[in-house]
Amino acid sequence: MEEQELAERCGLNDNRARKELYERYAGRMLSVCIRYAGERETAQDLMHDGFLKIFASFDKFTWRGEGSLRAWMERIMVNTVLQYLRKNDVMSQSTALDNVPEVYDEPDVASVDVIPQKVLMHFIRELPAGYRTVFNLYVFEEKSHKEIAGLLGINEKSSASQLTRAKSALAAKVHEWMKNNA
To answer: What is the model's pLDDT at position 41?
Structure first.
């Protein structure tokens, strides 16, 4: 079934269409949730919560062409995870990484391309929750520090600082991986 028809049938509460939607997109949505939550078990719970919100919100979905359904669903998943993180005050619980400098040597892009994506995503999941959340919003969702600050209830300078520290920690992990695997 095409994406537009699938969306329309889900909007009509067609359970077969809902099942197909879930089966088609669950893997991708779980990846989005894991990227923010860090732990698979929590991410699975959040993904299921997100699908419930999706199924309840089809009256708000507007078809804008191929890929618009997935993009809309991803926004709902990200918002579901951010709501969870805010509710659990994850930003203030973030543990600082010891000895993470504000200035770091950024690995060159060619060497980073050698690292498997699965390894890079693992490095991101290992970041403290606050760093990981800001990094994901900035890099994957292309949010500005002002937008991130509004979403997370922090100030813009905190967002910028956490992004810098996240990049520094990731750069150290990449350099270490390259040293051990090159």
So the answer is: 95
What share of the chain in percent tops pLDDT 70?
87
Residue 19's alpha-carbon distances to 22, 76, 80, 131, 180, in angstroms, are 5, 18, 20, 35, 44
Evaluate if residue 141 carries a pLDDT over 80: yes
Q: SS3 of 143, please?
A: coil
Q: How is residue 60 annotated by DSSP?
A: G
Sequence-distant (6+) residues with CB within 8 A of 155 are 149
- The closest of 120, 153, 118, 112 to 134, measured between CA atoms, is 153
C-alpha closest to that of 86 among 31, 144, 137, 28: 137
In contact, 176 and 126? CB cutoff 8 Å: no
User: From the centroid of its chain, how far is CA 9?
Assistant: 28
Higher pLDDT, 17 or 106: 17
Helix, strand and coil percent figures for the chain, each rounded to 5 = 75, 0, 25
Where do we find the tokens 């270490």? 176
- What pLDDT sits at residue 92? 63
